[in-house]
Amino acid sequence: MARLTAENTELALEIIARYPRPKSALIPLLHLAQEQDGHVTDAAMSQIAELVGVSAAEVLGTASFYEMFKFEPVGRYMVNICTNISCQLMGGEELLEHAESTLGIRPGQTTEDGLFTLEDVECIAACTEAPCLQVNYRYFHKISNPQFDQLVADLRSGARNDIPPHGTLAKVRQRIPADRRAGVVTPEDTAHPVWLASSQEAQS
Question: I want to staple 117 with a disulfide (CB 3.0 to 4.6 A). Which of 98, 110, 134, 135 is the partner?
Fold first, then answer.
């Protein structure tokens, strides 16, 4: 089971330094682990626990609360099809059945080539655009069966480069300059954040 790479461990320490308390970096570090391996491994959670000073059980408890974190390998593309009330009324269940036929898998399964994992999900907050789905949490609205087939074909062929692999939240990583960070004071400390103090000094 993979721990964070040396490069990602260095990045994890940089992320932790952005927060007043190491524990506050827990969710960003889980995203980092999932970006590395496509899912969150036990070894990564143990390492994150060491880095932020909590138990591995607390890391797992936090990660398991959020549906976006996966603990087993999934496909490069996570296809979430909504079948809640609005999407159901507009053909969401039929779209899911079509997706099962097109991909040759059932919800919760991954295609043999490792490209697609299919999920039947609850409301994804796009009710006016039903039926809708997400691919790696990127939205596709008012999807018809032919449009779904074209989307799958484009992803298989590599024709679409706007959807990064599962686990990658953004294609461009944010870098926060030291003078724009919140600082390392505890929440009980009433001192102004570093960036605010710097701004006030510049204006005086």
Answer: 110
